Amino acid sequence: MLRGRTRRGRGAHAAADDDPLDAAQERRVRAVLALGGVPQADLPDGVQQVRLRLLERAASGREAPRDVSAWAAVVASNLAMDWHRAKRRQERLGERLAALRPAELPSGEETSLLSLAVAQGLDELPDAQRQVVVLRFYADLPVRSIAEQLGVPEGTVKSRLHTAVRALRARLHEDEVV
Length: 178
Hints:
The chain is mainly alpha-helical. The chain has helices spanning 23-35, 43-59, 68-92, 110-124, 127-138, 143-150, 154-174. The longest helix is centred in the middle third of the chain and has 25 residues, at 68-92. The chain is globular and about 50 Å long.
C-alpha cells in the first residue's frame, strides 16, 4: 500500500487517502487491541501508534510489508502486550488501574455472558498465548502468517494455540458457561 509513495511536505490537513490504514484495516487493528485487553478509551491511541509505526517504516526507507493488514494486526497485538506489561509494572508499584469491565452483567443475554467469560479467560492467558489466539481467531490470520509476523516456527504457534484453547475451554467449563 505504501510502495511508490513519497511523503514530503505533508501539511496538517493531509488528505484522507494518504492514511496508511484503510477502514477495514483500522477496524481489524481496533478489534485486535480490544481483544488484547486494551481499554476502550485507549483504542484511538493504539490505532495511531500502528499508523505511526507504518509511516516510520516507510520514512526510514524500509520496504513496505507484503501484507499491511497482517503486519498491522501483529503490531496491534504487540501494542496490547506492551500495554499489559505496563499495567503489571504499575500494579507492582501499588497503582491500580480502573476496572476494565463493568461489574454487572447484562441480564437475559447468554451471548453476553459467554463473551464476558471468554474475555476474562483471555485476560488470564499468558501474553504469548493470548497474542496467537487473538491473531488467529479474531484477526483471522492463518497460522503461517502469524508465525512469519512473530518470527517463530509454525509449530510454536500451533502449540500456543492448542494450549490456550484448552485453557479457555477448561475455564468455560469450570465457570459452567458451556
